[in-house]
């Protein structure tokens, strides 16, 4: 590597007040700085894309050439958070001392990211999260998914219906934060359809006297049941009706 000329002022020139420096001295120093530019550019270019380039010297080893994010691909649920981590590497493939990164979201409508790399899901979809330092930028692929069902309830949890009568059951799904999840598909089933049958909407019909019979709602693998008892008639259902 070519020797780099020293940059400085002559001994007779003041260093305390830049406004008093002679114009010629300032011009001479600027020419020296300009001379350095192609040398530094040559150092960086010499590294190229090969992380093990033999001419990657001590100066170039301190220059960030690429940034890795971990995880490089991940899934986060709506409302949940995910901590991202970034590392900056030199052209020698060595970890640099860079610890501060500028984080940004490729789509803040889907997910946001804090100054510390904490990603929070907002709306379902795919996006990229970026971290930058030293003029380089790395990214990770993030999928924001709807939250998983944590528990299911069925209301009412028990009922007595008359023979031939009906009652409507309602199933509700909740995530781990106890937020209700709307629009999830419910599958209904009866432990004994000969006594109490149930249709796809949760309406139960008394078929034969007996019970209690478990009528179950299943939502994404989570279940809850209502105990249904069928009698000849109920207090609100006169005999013969």
Q: Distance between termini?
A: 103 Å
Strand order of the largest sheet: 2-9-8-5
Q: Assess the beta-strand content as a share of residues.
A: 35-45%
* Mean pLDDT across all amino acids: 81
Low-confidence stretches: 1-27, 32-47, 50-54
Class from secondary-structure proportions: mainly beta
The main β sheet shows up as: 4 strands, mixed
**H/E series, N to C?**
HEEEEEEEEEEEEEEEEEEE
How many extended strands?
19
User: Mind telling me the C-alpha Rg?
Assistant: 35 Å
Shape estimate: rod-shaped
Describe what this molecule looks like in 3D.
It is rod-shaped and about 90 Å long. It is mainly β and 241 residues long. The relative contact order is 0.11. It has one helix and 19 strands.
Short structural description:
By secondary structure, this protein is mainly beta. It has one helix and 19 strands. The longest helix has 25 residues, at 23-47.
Provide the fold topology:
Blueprint: H1 23-47, E1 64-70, E2 73-77, E3 81-83, E4 85-90, E5 102-105, E6 111-113, E7 118-121, E8 125-133, E9 136-145, E10 151-155, E11 158-162, E12 166-168, E13 170-174, E14 180-181, E15 187-190, E16 196-198, E17 203-206, E18 210-219, E19 222-231
Parallel strand pairs: 2-9, 11-19
Antiparallel strand pairs: 1-4, 3-7, 5-8, 6-7, 8-9, 10-13, 12-17, 13-14, 15-18, 16-17, 18-19
């Amino acid at each position: 590597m070519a020797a780099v000329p020293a940059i400085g002022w002559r001994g007779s020139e003041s260093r305390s007040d830049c406004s008093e420096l002679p114009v010629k001295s300032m011009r001479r120093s600027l020419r020296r700085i300009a001379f350095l530019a192609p040398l530094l550019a040559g150092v960086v270019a010499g590294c190229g894309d090969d992380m093990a380039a033999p001419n990657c010297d001590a100066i170039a080893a301190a220059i960030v050439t690429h940034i890795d994010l971990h995880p490089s691909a991940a899934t986060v649920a709506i409302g949940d958070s995910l901590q991202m981590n970034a590392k900056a590497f030199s052209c020698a493939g060595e970890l640099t001392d860079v610890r501060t990164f500028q984080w940004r979201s490729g789509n803040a409508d889907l997910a946001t990211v804090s100054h510390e790399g904490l990603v929070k899901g907002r709306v379902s979809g795919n996006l990229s999260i970026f971290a930058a330092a030293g003029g380089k930028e790395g990214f990770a692929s993030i999928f924001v998914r709807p939250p998983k069902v944590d528990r299911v309830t069925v209301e009412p949890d028990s009922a007595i219906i008359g023979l031939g009568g009906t009652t409507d059951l309602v199933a509700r799904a909740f995530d781990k934060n106890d937020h209700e999840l709307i629009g999830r598909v419910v599958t209904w089933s009866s432990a004994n359809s000969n006594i109490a049958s149930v249709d796809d909407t949760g309406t139960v019909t008394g078929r034969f006297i007996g019970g209690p019979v478990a009528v179950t709602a299943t939502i994404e693998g989570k279940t809850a049941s209502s105990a249904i008892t069928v009698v000849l008639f109920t207090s609100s259902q006169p005999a013969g009706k």
